[in-house]
Amino acid sequence: MANTLQTRLRQLPGEIKKLAAKNNPAARLEASAKDPVSPIAKAINLLLTRCQARDAKLLDAAELFQQTFWILDAKGRTVTYLNGAGNLSSDPNAWVTSAYPDDRDVVKAMLAKQREGDTGQAEFRMSAPDGGVRWMWCRYIPLAGKGGSIEKIVGVFEDVTEQKEAEQVLSTSQVELRNVVEVRQSQKLQSIGELIGGIAHEINTPVQFVGDNVRFVREAYPKLDELLKAAAEKNGDDSDLAFLREELPKALQQAQEGVERVAKIAKTLKEYSREQRDQGIKSANLNQAVESTLLIARNAMKYVADVETSYGVLPMVTCHLGDIQQVLLDLFVHAAEVIEATGARTKKRGLIRVETKHSGEWVTISISDSGNPLSQEARERIFEPATNTEEEKLKGLSLAFAIVTEQHGGRLTVSSETGKGNTFSVRLPVLGKDHRASAAAAR
Question: If I label 421, which of 8, 102, 152, 410 is the partner at 20 to 30 A Cα–Cα?
Fold first, then answer.
């Protein structure tokens, strides 16, 4: 009996190896009741049954996930899929041949990193059996064995095609929406430009008429003054004639200055109108643009604030001048509104300061107001699109932000400081967005 038991114990390891070689989870050791190793075989079979049940539960759980779990051997030769393998080959190099041609280098780089023991992730396209293309996301982590060497790499695959398609639809929708907004803004600016141009034309005609007559009277006055002087000498001291001789030149001078001021306003309106209707990108004098826009915004500011300007020496800037002037107008009006709200409580007149600077590839236009500082929430949200009328004042500069950042490749920022109000800074590339993008690509 003892010899028989010893013989069976020596045979048992070989039988276990044969069982493992079958690679069949349902295979079990065979042992009759009279076999001396029967208790050991039953124990091993029970352990295998429990392991099979546990693996089945794990596989059932894994099937609930959208990801496919896999294990790659340390040498990167064979990959084992735990679930959802589909038509995936056990050869990891098949990932390369199945990949979309343009993405094969991405897959090769991913496999190289896995062999080196790196942790990472990658996105690439794979050709589907139906001829379509699917987007795959893969994440991988190395597992070290004894001695710290890599024992295997574990990871997950996930089909993210629907997510990618949704992102593409969203991106396309955003582009289309932005295009619609830009078209509407362009139409709006053209309409405003035409309206302002018409007003300027209507003003210009009577201003020329009045100006011509004032100049005529001023030129004729010396002769009239001689007549008045002769009349005064003939009739003796006449205080009324003396008063007219003293005050008429002053009145004519003031009338001439007033006419010239109105003519300047009309000229500025015509220039502003032309710039609003001109949709092209061109080199522009931003100092002059600031000056003309201040004149347009004067009515919104003159009752609540004084205006100080400090113009630096600027190069000509490549931009869409009409849109930049619209941005400046929005910022001037915003500054006036902040000061007006502050003045309603303090009863004090405010100050708006405008400064232009040039530094390297950039020019900066800063517009500061002496109003109450904006809250952190207001600063964070002021460039976001408003969704309702209650948010319009809080988020009133979304279009200005889009014009500066997206259309011109510049920056629009705001800072606030207690006791010093708020400062909006418009930063624009001197040579325009396209030139800057080309220079960045070349680097």
Answer: 410
pLDDT in the model for residue 358: 95
Residue 411 tokens read as 């920056």
Say if CB 273 and CB 224 are below 8 A apart: no
365 neighbors 426 (Cβ within 8 angstroms): yes
Query: Between the CA of residue 381 and those of 93, 386, 403, 426, what are the distances in Å?
Result: 50, 9, 17, 17
Query: What's the token pair of residue 270?
Result: 């015509």
CA distance 107 to 112: 9
Residue 369 near residue 305 (C-beta atoms within 8 A): yes
DSSP for 194-232, written as a single string: HHHHHHHHHHHHHHHHHHHHHHHHHHHHHHHHHHHHHHH
Between 251 and 193, whose confidence is greater? 251
Interatomic CA distance for residues 325 and 307, integer angstroms: 17
CA atoms within 13 A on the CB side of 404: 25
Number of Cβ within a 10 Å radius of residue 230: 10
- The owner of tokens 């609540």 is 304
The predicted-structure confidence for 270-285, as pLDDT tens digits, reads as follows: 666 665 555 568 888 9
Measured distance CA(323)–CA(428) in Å, rounded: 13
Torsion of CA 257, 262, 263, 265, to 10 degrees: 130
* DSSP symbols for 337-367: HHHHHHHHHH---EEEEEEEEEETTEEEEEE
pLDDT band at 187 (very low <50, low <70, confident <90, very high): low
Q: Rounded CA gap, 317 and 286, in Å? A: 7
Helical segments of 64-156, H only: 94-98, 104-115
Cβ pair 397, 379 in contact under 8 A? no
**Count of Cβ atoms closer than 10 Å to residue 392 Cβ:** 11
- pLDDT mean over 420-428: 92
Cα–Cα distance measured from residue 248 to residue 175, given in angstroms and rounded to the nearest whole number: 64
What would you report as the CA-atom Rg of the chain, rounded to the nearest whole angstrom? 42
The mean pLDDT value of the chain amounts to: 77
Which amino acid is it at 1?
M
Average pLDDT over residues 29-55: 74
> Is beta strand 305-311 parallel, antiparallel or unpaired with respect to 350-359?
parallel
State pTM to two decimals: 0.48
